[in-house]
Specification:
The chain is α+β, with helices and mostly antiparallel strands and 241 residues long. The chain is 26% helix and 22% strand.
Length: 241
C-alpha cells in the first residue's frame, strides 16, 4: 500500500509539472504584475535547482555577527531542528534549501555557495522570537514568505504579516487558482498550484520549510488540514490570469 501511494504521488507530480517550462530565461527582477504561469515557473525553478556544496557551506554555530546558524545538511541534529537535514557536501543536490529570512534567486544562491556562505538556516522558536534580528548575513537560501515574494516578483521579501496587505481575501477555498496563497499570520505561507480531485478536498502546493525536509517542495495537502490550522486563502491584487 505504501509503495502504491508513493507511486501515485510521483505520477501526479510528474504529470502536473510536465507543462511547466523553466530555464535560464526566467527574469526574477521586480515587476508591477505577474502572470499565474510565471509564478509556477519560478516556483519550479526553485524546486528543481541543482547545486553542489562543499564542507565550507556547513555551519552549526554562530556566524561572524554572533547569530546562530544551522544548515539543513545531512549532519543536522533532529533534536535542534525538529526534523533531519538533507543536503550533502560534494554531491549534487536538488532544491533550494530553507533559510530563515532568505530571499535569494537561484543565481544569487549559486554565487554565495561559491563564496562559502552557509547553505540554508533552519527555523527555530528562537528565530521566530527575534524575527529580523535572527537573520544571518552569512547564510543563503529562501524562506516561505521570501519564496512567495520571488514568485510574485516583489521588490523585497514580504513577511507573512505583510503579504495579506497586497491581496484580496478569498471567501472560499474552492475559488483558489494557481499562484494564490494560503497564509497564516506570522507563521507560514503556501503557494497554491491546483486541486487534484474533483471534490476539491486535496491540492498541490509549493512551500519551503515544511516537513519532511528543509527545502522548496511541491506536495499534496488536504484542505481540511490547512483549514484546521487556520490558514486563509488570498489572491495577489496584481496577478494576471
Amino acid at each position: 500500500m505504501h509503495r502504491f501511494l508513493l507511486f501515485l504521488f510521483i505520477s501526479i507530480l510528474s504529470t502536473s509539472c510536465s507543462t511547466l517550462r523553466i530555464g535560464r530565461e526566467i527574469d526574477y527582477s521586480p515587476a508591477s504584475s505577474v502572470r499565474r504561469i510565471e509564478t509556477l515557473r519560478i516556483a519550479e525553478s526553485y524546486r528543481r535547482h541543482l547545486w553542489t556544496p562543499t564542507e565550507q557551506n556547513i555551519l552549526h554555530g554562530q556566524d561572524a555577527d554572533g547569530i546562530r546558524v544551522d544548515t539543513p545538511d545531512s549532519t543536522l541534529s533532529v533534536s535542534r531542528a525538529g526534523r533531519p537535514g538533507w543536503w550533502k557536501p560534494g554531491k549534487m543536490n536538488q532544491g533550494m534549501p530553507y533559510q530563515w529570512g532568505g530571499f535569494d534567486t537561484p543565481e544569487s544562491f549559486d554565487q554565495k555557495i561559491k563564496q562559502g556562505f552557509a547553505a540554508g538556516d533552519v527555523y527555530t522558536s528562537d528565530k521566530r522570537r527575534h524575527l529580523y534580528d535572527a537573520v544571518s548575513n552569512y547564510a543563503c537560501g529562501v524562506d516561505c514568505s521570501g519564496f512567495i515574494s520571488r514568485c510574485w516578483l516583489l521588490d523585497r521579501p514580504y513577511s507573512t504579516r505583510e503579504l495579506p496587505k497586497l491581496c484580496t481575501p478569498l471567501t472560499n477555498y474552492n475559488d483558489l487558482k494557481a499562484g494564490d496563497i494560503l497564509n497564516k499570520h506570522n507563521t507560514h505561507v503556501l503557494l497554491f498550484y491546483k486541486f487534484i480531485d474533483k471534490e476539491k478536498t486535496r491540492f498541490l502546493a509549493y512551500e519551503t520549510g515544511s516537513p519532511p525536509t528543509w527545502k522548496v517542495l511541491l506536495h499534496p495537502i488536504k484542505v481540511d488540514y490547512v483549514k484546521g490550522l487556520g490558514y486563509k486563502p488570498y489572491r495577489y491584487k496584481r496577478i494576471i490570469d
